[in-house]
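Protein in question quoted in full.
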Amino acid sequence: MAVLLASLLLWGLVLGPETEAAVYVETRPRLWAEAESLLEPWVNVRLTCRASLDTRDFQLFKDGVAQEPVHFDELRTEHQFPLGAATHDARGLYRCRTTLGAGWTGLSNLVEVTGTESLPPPLLWADPVSWITPGLNATLLCRGELRGVTFLLKREGDKDFLEVAESPDDVEVTFPVHRASNYTCSYRTHATGAPSEPSAAVSVEELAEPPAPRLGLDRDAAGVVRPGAAVTLVCEAPLSGVEFELLRGEAAVPAPRMSTSPERIFFLLEAPAPGPGGPYTCRYQLRAPQAVWSARSAPAELLLSDGTLPAPELSAEPAGLSPAPGALVQLRCRAPRAGLRFALVREDASGSRVHRRLRPAEAEAVFELRVVSVRDSANYSCVYVDPQPPFAGSAPSAPLELRVAGPLPRPQLRPLWRGAVTPGRAAVLRCDSHVPEVSFELLREGEVVDATQRWSTAPEVDLELTYVGPQHVGNYTCRYRAWGPQPFLSELSNAVELRVAVSLARERLSFSPKPEPEEKRDSTTARVLRCTPRSPADLSAGCVTLVSSWS
């Protein structure tokens, strides 16, 4: 147990009561627009960049291009960038950043200045969830980018606005919602002004019980576990501030627990007894008098084996352990008798885990690996357990080293846009590897784009350039790699050309543009565990006019 606690603390986890969590700090600044007069919102506009912590440096970006930084001798929290009249020269997509420690923070939310007198729609989203259950009402957040406006909430089918809320010192308001329906929000700059275009609709559902959480095994529990060994189960809910419960069958398990975030809990099973390793499920409940328990998670089961029974025999068909890519491989696990439960265990550089389970009527189990590829290269063994008392289990079989030769499937890259990308918008490229559980890399002119490297269990992933400027022009390719007993790196995909549309107003902005320097890694933010976004996931690919998008 002490070793487990030490390991968790080394990973940055926070020890505490079941609902206590680490404090997450957002280090990126916020950006919004302010008008000198809301009666004439486009006559004199300024952009306010507010830092998360006091700073001496502010920098504005327009259409993906960095403007001249502004430096102050004294610390301050915010700085205003005057744009003047929202005419042709000021049109564009803006972000800002500030210094924090020795480097720059990440970029702020995105704000678009259109240079027209129309009121574009705000952004509406549900926070934290878009459903209503007994004891829980939904909350809708409506956000614009003009400070001091009045927000209006409307429910589908109603003639009048359901609720009106002023926001004199902010650019967003919160609306509580008590009924299931479709909702939109608008805003107006003054009492006699016409409302803006409505936001996109948000649907709020009414559920009898909250949706199920997710229950997973840590790396040690994913393999063969000896009775009495410490293992960890992780339960994650779709919202924070809840009470968690672990169950084995119908009985609650009073396991010690710790947390790393408000919506996640780690259950520490100190010494599972011999017997069926589950199934375990988890659920959650809001801390409210009338709150109901959520649906249960999908079950998770430990494979407990004391290793006292004779080891089974594992063989492969075809007999060769270097099958051609695309072949069918059958791994046969033979035990001394019938009525047993079998498990195929895969071991590679990422660890050992139960790959598949079977409960055949005979004394052998046949595990099929269909359409094998390099990704199936690993060491395989099998074990069996007796489902009857005293629940003994076997030692593992002798391992078989399966090696599938190349060539690797060449990935395919395609853009999720047409034509030239608008400066300041996002550019998303989809890389399809045809192979699951690999790491993806996006490259520009042969150089890896660091911010887009991702690992995925799926065979394809979207790689995003969140704020495109002229510096992103070029030819892009992708590739994938994996680590294991036989590491591999794919060839490069086909090339995709990224072109950026010309921004005629860029050179007329009152701030002198300069080439974007090489990005410095923010050593302060690197120590933060995680920052919870305040808006829907990744809105930067399609920002609404004058509406923030959080990358």
Notes: DSSP finds one helix and 40 strands in the chain. Residues 2-10 form the longest helix (9 residues). The helical segments are 2-10. The mean pLDDT is 83.
